[in-house]
Design goal:
Layout (H helix, E strand, L loop, with lengths): L12 E5 L3 H7 L4 H22 L3 E8 L7 H24 L3 E5 L7 H14 L6 E8 L1 H17 L10 H4 L13 E4 L18 E3 L10 H13 L8
Parallel strand pairs: 1-2, 1-5, 2-4, 3-4, 5-6
Helix pairs in contact: 1-2, 2-3, 3-4
This protein binds 3-methylbut-3-enyl trihydrogen diphosphate (2 copies) and magnesium ion (MG).
One 3-methylbut-3-enyl trihydrogen diphosphate (IPE) binds next to α1.
């Protein structure tokens, strides 16, 4: 059944924790990396769907700072997949006027993969349509600690007065500077946790935990999550 979405209340920013690739593959008796490969196709589809609906920002959690705890084989493959994904999608990003941004720490991403992230950002930076943000080697506590360090350095250099720090300008020291906070967070696979993702930025996001693995998350599931968002009442502390 087709969903009717209220076009006036499409979330401006949707953040997605793409989870369940490994379990999806396991159920199909495939290697975990096959789950990641299939998952990449869903990213393309969800970007198209978001763009068509008028969403302005989509952030995908693709690799966390904690994911280095996985096997060398799996992390190496995920670096390769990132490179291939960006290489294959550059033309589409340009054609669809999509701006690409990466958030996360540089080390220890291999040089070739880091260069691809930087190049893709540079090649799409003038685009004015949807902003596609990839959280890659991203950890929210690290992001907040990095912000605290930058603020301390600014203060020491005499460019900033500690008493002037507030919720608004603190955000300018985060990797997500200039990007509005997510309105909706979707985490697939049935896990109900945040896993060190956008802790500051998700303060008032609506949370949605569909029970499908990321490789099976299609446009219909995405629209269902938006529909659920549209049935919520956001109060922001007021009554
Ligand atoms: C999400 O799927 C992708 C990454 C974290 C890179 P997982 O690989 O975590 O899949 P599960 O949770 O093991 O099923
Ligand atoms: C979160 O998924 C990170 C990404 C989706 C990139 P994980 O599968 O790594 O999270 P945990 O370990 O289940 O919390
Ligand atoms: Mg997982």
């Amino acid at each position: 059944m087709a969903l009717v979405l209220d076009k006036e209340h499409i979330p401006r920013h949707i953040a997605i924790i793409m989870d369940g690739n490994g379990r999806w593959a396991k159920e199909k008796r495939l290697a975990r990396t096959e789950g990641h490969r299939e998952g990449m196709k869903r990213v393309e589809e969800i970007v198209d769907a978001a763009d068509a609906l008028g969403v302005r920002y989509v952030t995908f959690f693709a690799f966390s700072t904690e994911n280095w705890r996985r096997s060398k084989t799996e992390t190496a493959m995920l670096m390769r997949f990132l490179d291939i994904f960006l290489q294959c999608n550059l033309k589409r990003l340009i054609k669809n006027n999509i701006r690409f941004l990466a958030i996360g720490r540089k080390e220890p991403i291999p040089e070739y993969a880091w260069k691809r992230l930087i190049a893709t950002q540079a090649q799409t930076k003038e685009n004015s349509g949807l902003t596609l943000i990839l959280a890659f080697n991203y950890g929210s506590r690290q992001e907040i600690a990095d912000a605290a360090r930058k603020i301390a350095e600014e203060a020491l250099a005499g460019r900033l007065v500690p008493g002037d720090i507030n919720e608004e300008n603190f955000g300018e020291f985060l990797y997500t500077k200039g990007i509005p906070d997510p309105d909706l967070l979707i985490r697939t696979s049935g896990e109900v946790r945040i896993s060190n993702f956008l802790l500051w930025q998700l303060s008032y996001a609506e949370l949605c935990f569909p029970k499908v693995y990321w490789p099976e998350f299609k446009r219909q599931n995405f629209e269902e999550a938006i529909s659920e968002y549209q049935r919520r009442t956001r109060r922001f502390g007021a009554v």
